[in-house]
């Protein structure tokens, strides 16, 4: 059954057929060219407001007092989760289109939470008269700090960015580099042993070097962006928009010069099985697989990892566990204050 009551249709693409239920031909072409698509109004603005209504209390900041905005960017822990099919059915339909159907997606990953990424900028940025060149941003990376990366990794099948606030140009929207997909696909194809996420870099998982950067296969996202990338796009949007990107999209947190708080999340999507770049029937390739093959410049690419897939516990997990407890205390204090106020009014 196809989501949202829609019907599948076939779009001829390079002489082949692509099964889709939501994504239109122009979006397919856009994804195949630049590696991302924007789903406008994927969920109501009112839902975005409801989900973020406690964010300032959780942060311990005052929305009306910038002097309390002591941290430029904050990656918050999650308190609640909702099925994507309920929260944003249009986005869920497009996710299925990009990944080859609902049956390929792990059910327990088809949820979004309130693990917001908040970017409030700084006083220095607000008073800046120039804009930092995208190549000089200090946060270039690909998502997935919790697993060893392979070309066919199923753990991060898409980079998903639901938008919960208005994001204007120079307002801290995620900066992307579509060229990075080609660069990283070819890099990972040469490393079937897998690579470890080592900060803003990759290091072959079998490395014995004391310093990661001494390994011949070491990859620095920051250095490669400076060396090879020329095309950059800043993601702007409105509450309820959802950006869906190829999992190898190089991206960076951009600077928020406007100091209008920017709130997004970036929930991963897991596949039941790894991507398959060597299918007998080319019509069975997902759009993500097609884009990866295009990046490699081939029609088929047999790939088999030479080491065991494994998960990693990133340092942020411990940080977010501590943050979660602090946020719960602030929310409990808020609820108590609201209850006392209600009692006072009724007395």
Report on this structure:
By secondary structure, this protein is an alpha+beta fold. The protein folds into 2 domains: 3-312, Jelly Rolls, CATH 2.60.120; 314-347. It is built from 10 helices and 16 strands. The strands form 6 sheets. Strands 3-14-8 form a 3-stranded antiparallel β-sheet. Strands 4-7-16 form a 3-stranded antiparallel β-sheet, with no helix packed on it. Helix 1 runs parallel beside helix 9 (287-296) and helix 7 (179-189) packs across helix 9.
Secondary structure: elements and pairs:
Blueprint: E1 9-13, E2 16-20, H1 25-34, E3 36-39, H2 45-51, H3 55-59, E4 73-75, E5 81-83, H4 84-87, H5 89-99, E6 111-113, E7 117-119, H6 123-126, E8 159-162, E9 175-177, H7 179-189, E10 195-197, E11 201-204, E12 219-220, H8 221-228, E13 233-234, E14 242-245, E15 250-252, E16 262-264, H9 287-296, H10 315-346
Antiparallel strand pairs: 1-2, 3-14, 4-7, 5-6, 7-16, 8-14, 9-13, 9-15, 10-11, 11-12
InterPro entries: Phytyl_CoA_dOase-like (IPR008775)
Coiled coil: 317-344
Keywords: Coiled coil
Instruction: Quote the average pLDDT.
Output: 92
The CATH architecture assignment of the largest domain turns out to be Sandwich
Tell me the number of structural domains. 2
Spatial arrangement of strands, main beta sheet = 3-14-8
**In sequence order, what are the helices and strands, one letter per element?**
EEHEHHEEHHEEHEEHEEEHEEEEHH
- The amount of beta strand, in percent, is 15-25%
Summarize, please:
This protein folds into two domains: 3-312, Jelly Rolls, CATH 2.60.120; 314-347. Helix content is 29%, strand content 16%. The chain has helices spanning 25-34, 45-51, 55-59, 84-87, 89-99, 123-126, 179-189, 221-228, 287-296, 315-346; strands spanning 9-13, 16-20, 36-39, 73-75, 81-83, 111-113, 117-119, 159-162, 175-177, 195-197, 201-204, 219-220, 233-234, 242-245, 250-252, 262-264.
